[in-house]
Amino acid sequence: MRSAMEIITGLDFSLKNSSVSLGKFDGIHIGHRFLLQEVAHQKDLVSTAFTFENRKGSPRIYTQEEKDFILQGLGIRREIIFPFNEKVKKMLPEEFIKQILVKQMDVKHICVGTDFRFGKNREGDIHMLERFQKRYGYTLTAVPKLTDENGIISSTRIRKLMDSGKISEVNRLLGSPYFMIGRVGHGNELGRKMNMPTANLLPKKDKKLLPNGVYATTVNIRGKQYNSVTNIGKKPTVGNYSVGVETYIIDFCGDIYGEEIQVFFHEFIRPERKFNSIEQLQCQLGQDKKEACIYHEKRQKAACIDI
């Protein structure tokens, strides 16, 4: 059972007894998770994730709603989404520590990466945070960048792996399967006509997607997980559509139109392609379902062995 997480936006707030990690947290990969779990384990303090509001730019691995879902699962009790306006941009590093972290948040513990920078012109760093510990009465944990045999684990690296379709490696670095949250809408109901009804999701514009293709997935509906197979793409066989996400939920029968679901991506099955006929497409969808079922059977057996 997930505890509710308080979400604070805007500049005007007053908090007590904060244990905080600060960062962008795009993707919330295993390096981020280490920081956040360290914050969550501080006794008698309120675990807090501090991030700046998303600015327009490259698509995000996770939308704000998806990040909230992960943070809550990691035991974070409070999230601050801080505006990044002109006043904040010009704020001197010590002023940020004194006014925001100490005065408004009553910070008692800070956990950041060793490369963390803040304040005007990014002049603040962990050395400054260390220098002001005694003056402002907080403790500090500085964590080096997490690395593996292929280098530093970062959101940039994960994005490149996503572009290459290396979903297993993406999931390893994220620490859990890449996923998306969306509300089920109506499609052209072609899947229903082929006896494979799908849940249709329209991705948000700022959501970074995996390459177009078919994937073995799982779906969370009303707190229960189901095996599924998902297509990301434009449905070239039947028309010219914008990129969408269609999920066939195996062994599920029910009306979920308008409901919010989570789709978790586990394994790449095949790239998207245009078929010569609806009959060819229908035959291939049956094969995709078989491939997904084989994968899910192996995954579930492996999970039983791990237990």
Q: How would you portray this structure in words?
A:
The strands form 3 sheets. The chain has a 6-stranded parallel beta sheet, with helices on both faces. Strands 9-14-11-12-13-10 form a 6-stranded antiparallel beta sheet. A two-stranded antiparallel ribbon has the order 7-8. The longest helix has 29 residues. Helices cover 32% and strands 27% of the residues. With 307 residues, it is of the alpha/beta class. The mean pLDDT is 91. The chain folds into 2 domains: 140 residues, HUPs (Rossmann fold, 3-Layer(aba) Sandwich), CATH 3.40.50; 130 residues, Riboflavin kinase-like (Elongation Factor Tu (Ef-tu), domain 3, Beta Barrel). The chain is built from 10 helices and 14 strands.
CATH architecture of the largest domain: 3-Layer(aba) Sandwich
Number of helices: 10
Task: Estimate nothing, just give the exact number of structural domains.
Answer: 2
Distance between the termini: 21 Å
What would the CATH topology of the largest domain be?
Answer: Rossmann fold
Q: What amount of the residues lies in strands? A: 25-35%
Overall pLDDT confidence: 91
What is the C-alpha radius of gyration, as a whole number of Å?
Answer: 22 Å
The strand line-up of the biggest sheet is 1-4-3-2-5-6
User: What is the overall silhouette?
Assistant: elongated
List SSEs in N-to-C order. Answer: EEHEHEHHEHHEEEHHEHEEEEEH
Decide which structural class fits the backbone.
Answer: alpha/beta
Name of the level-1 CATH class of the largest domain: Alpha Beta
- CATH homolog superfamily of the largest domain: HUPs
Biggest pleated-sheet summary: 6 strands, parallel
- Given as residue ranges, the uncertain stretches (5+ residues, pLDDT < 50) are none
Helix content: 25-40%
**Count of beta strands:** 14
